[in-house]
Amino acid sequence: MKSSFWGDYLSRNYVVGVDLGGTKILTAVADRQGSVLSRVRVATGADLGQDHVINEIVTSVAVALREAGVSTEAVAAAGIGVPGPLDPQTGVVYLAPNLGWQNLSLGEILGSRLKLPVYVDNDANLAALGECVYGAGQSADNLVYITVSTGVGGGLILGGKIYHGFSGGAGEIGHITLAADGPRCGCGNLGCLEALASGTAIAKRAVALVAEGRGLGILSRAGGDRGGVSARVVAAAASNGDGEAILIMRDAGRYLGMAVAGILNLLNPSVVVLGGGVMQSGSILWEAMLETTRRCALSSALQEVSIVRAALGEEAGVMGALALALEKSQGV
Amino acid sequence: MKSSFWGDYLSRNYVVGVDLGGTKILTAVADRQGSVLSRVRVATGADLGQDHVINEIVTSVAVALREAGVSTEAVAAAGIGVPGPLDPQTGVVYLAPNLGWQNLSLGEILGSRLKLPVYVDNDANLAALGECVYGAGQSADNLVYITVSTGVGGGLILGGKIYHGFSGGAGEIGHITLAADGPRCGCGNLGCLEALASGTAIAKRAVALVAEGRGLGILSRAGGDRGGVSARVVAAAASNGDGEAILIMRDAGRYLGMAVAGILNLLNPSVVVLGGGVMQSGSILWEAMLETTRRCALSSALQEVSIVRAALGEEAGVMGALALALEKSQGV
């Protein structure tokens, strides 16, 4: 007896997740319990053009399925995270600057190439979902994910689902304004969290310090090379006890704490997950963040929340893509 | 033929809304289309104790029903807004400082007194819902409501419903931290929006100015009486062109704009509604708020949002209570 269309998809016991980044594509295959059966990493090759990138995605899915020993016919759905604003309903990517894409119907194109239902979402939203379901998030219904690296990004899980807002733009945690007269952000505004606490912001402050002939401890950590002053160098100098570096890391942590406190008071989440390279830079920034959060959040919101480090590292996005595919194919 | 229990409630064509305040109780009766048939206002008499207040609620509902010509048997549900943290699931009010209440099972008590399903929510959340459904909110799925008067409060409508957060504490917009070294807020923290832009904050700045022997234009607006310096007086002096008053109103507007921008970037709502006495104080604060919002919000979030004045005034809460009762009895 031939099964119906829906019955057919229901009997499909696997999902595919893809995290499409500016430099690499991570692809994974999992079963319905969320156990990962295979992982593949390939270079994006964004400079080789849109068709090349789409071919790389399709190939990486084929390789991941082969490594997992799963046929396409056994896959219920694929989820894919893309760096840029998009419409999760239609799968149209409005803009992906790192890929040179504009108004691309990625969901449709991949759906027809992979012969699967394909669900597209923003990479930061999927990282939030990944940490929520498989990482540090304890499958919380109300979770805020913040990633601090070159920039500051994030995603919101509200009521158990990714919260997209009215036009898909929610979760721009890096652009919460914290200092009306603060430094200019890449977005053009002044005093955004990203301009105060990102790796770029930390490095910029250190570079400015060194340019003034100060920050000698930081400069020495960079081997005396001004061009080598980075957030990582500042963090290392701070961990080593350098006063100026400690001040820079603490200030970044304080602004992060202000943002976290504001988010606690506004959204009353049960979990806040902080990830990204800068959050792994020792305890100085983390402690300053926690101290300011405790000082600025209402006790009612503070009592209920766990503030934790991300658990999945660079796999958060692909795990979220798997979670999205699972969630979307659950009802089928 | 006797109808079933649910069938019985479905045939009930009216709802009751109550806004329980520290000084007054507003009660209204509406039909299923949301047309208000009667309105009643009585004093809360909080100092006369809990039983008195509950009796006043029950009586005001009876009076409102009689004025509307509606019998209790024709009412599907009642909604009630309470000033303080509570559990909307159980109807337990944790704390209502203005009423002297603590851990009161209000939903249960009123349900048995009124012989109706009673739904309890926070007053600011219901004002948000009221403005969303019947006021300036255009029935938006994603709406942020901010009320600026003595304090700063608010509520979030996300995905078409009141967003409560993990433990009912969401929407504390007044306690978003905007200035790490700002003035102390009533909540004990520093630099909350409420400590920077509420009527109390505006008055405090003016009082301090006058105490320094400055702010003569403001003092003269208060009839030369230092004790008469209020936010209303500052607003009037500002509208009259007084430079110091203008500066105070503009600063409050700027902080409001910072908060609105942060909320736009975080939540990407389609409507922001601003109400409360301070928002009605002329155009200086409003324009400063808009200018800062435009400067600090991402253009993607800004393009999609309408920032509007509240339309319901002090009726927002009771209209929200009606909307809640309608929403909850829709499925019945």
TrEMBL record, chains A, B:
<comment type="similarity">
    <text>Belongs to the ROK (NagC/XylR) family.</text>
</comment>
<dbReference type="Pfam" id="PF00480">
    <property type="entry name" value="ROK"/>
</dbReference>
<dbReference type="InterPro" id="IPR000600">
    <property type="entry name" value="ROK"/>
</dbReference>
<protein>
    <submittedName>
        <fullName>Glucokinase</fullName>
    </submittedName>
</protein>
<dbReference type="InterPro" id="IPR049874">
    <property type="entry name" value="ROK_cs"/>
</dbReference>
<keyword id="KW-0808">Transferase</keyword>
<keyword id="KW-0418">Kinase</keyword>
<dbReference type="InterPro" id="IPR043129">
    <property type="entry name" value="ATPase_NBD"/>
</dbReference>
<dbReference type="GO" id="GO:0016301">
    <property type="term" value="F:kinase activity"/>
</dbReference>
